[in-house]
Amino acid sequence: MTAPAPDQIPFDWDAFRASLSSFVVQFEWLFQILGIIIGAIVLRIALHFVIRRVVNRVVSGVKKRQNVDDTQSITASPLAAVRVVQRTRTLGSVLNNVVSVVIVIVALLLIVTAINTDIIGSFALITAALGAGLGFGAQNIVKDVLNGLFMVAEDQLGVGDVVDLGEAIGIVENVGIRVTQVRDIDGTLWFVRNGEILRVGNKSQGWARVIIDLPAPYHSDVEAVQATLLATANEMANSPQWRRKIIEKPEIWGLESISAEALVIRLVMKTRTADQWDVARELRFRLKKALDDTGVNLPALNRVVFDGQRETSQPVGDGALHGTAPVKTVPKDRSAT
């Protein structure tokens, strides 16, 4: 056997392991922080994946039971199915936000502890003072979070609902843990703090109602006009295009108001949520054609004011007209021609 050459010095594995152990011990806190950050990221991705998977399974199950391919088609399905989809997506959005916030808070606490295990105890008084200050300052944040959780748990609103929150009226696009996003008819996206929502008018739960208040000439045959209105509405309700959007048969509720110039007749129709506006537009068009065919001309009123559910009175020549629909019309003055 030949002896090793003088220039071939064997690698000292013991020294390498000792130096590596010393490096790990010296920067142990850094490795702990990296492990906490990586673990938090992986946990967040995994939990979001699980939540998204559960939401998709619930939505897919509803679509399969209703035999439709997309969620837009579910609007023609039973109302309970639509509500399940909307509420599931809302809960999924809120849970994703809650998971992210909790993971970030826990990760920050673990990182602080890894840097110095005694740091929390050393700054106990400072932490208490900061906590008291933040407690007063964060009252609105806590209020927003709690109110948002209660709104979702009580099914007050959901993603896709048409809601009236006071200042913001539109479609709910996202329900966060602190802020609800509502897009109005003009396309403006409103960010509404959950704690500032004092009332919720949800137009997407249960059913909706189309209300048509039609002024007819005072000397017209009321029964004949009502029969024409009802026949036209029933014809529309039985048509294949609108049958799925109309829940119950149309009804004539009778005379809403009487004046020297007009008789206001009310026609109502119960529809599915979010379809009342399309149904109302089509119904007005059909009623106009039907009245033209029967020779009934609407009265030339100087002023008609229908203000929601409140009865108002405005002078109209020698008399006054009362109404209950959100309509304001000022026809052309014929005396000027």
Which tags fit this structure?
337 residues, alpha+beta, Alpha-Beta Plaits, 3-stranded antiparallel sheet, 8 helices, 12 strands, elongated, disordered C terminus, Mechanosensitive ion channel protein MscS, mechanosensitive monoatomic ion channel activity, transmembrane, MscS_channel_2nd, transmembrane helix
Can you walk me through this structure?
This protein has 337 residues and is an alpha+beta fold. Among the domains are: 18-122; 208-336, Alpha-Beta Plaits (2-Layer Sandwich), CATH 3.30.70. The protein contains eight helices and twelve strands. The protein has helices spanning 13-26, 28-66, 79-115, 119-122, 124-137, 139-153, 222-237, 276-294, and strands at 162-164, 169-175, 179-183, 189-193, 201-202, 208-217, 251-258, 262-271, 304-306, 314-316, 319-321, 327-329. The strands form four sheets. Strands 4-3-2-1-5 form a five-stranded antiparallel beta sheet. Strand 2 and strand 3 form a beta hairpin. Helix 2 runs antiparallel to helix 3. It is elongated, with a radius of gyration of 34 Å. Residues 303-337 have low confidence and may be disordered. One of its GO terms (cellular component) is plasma membrane. Residues 212-297 form the Mechanosensitive ion channel MscS C-terminal domain. Residues 140-202 form the Mechanosensitive ion channel MscS domain.
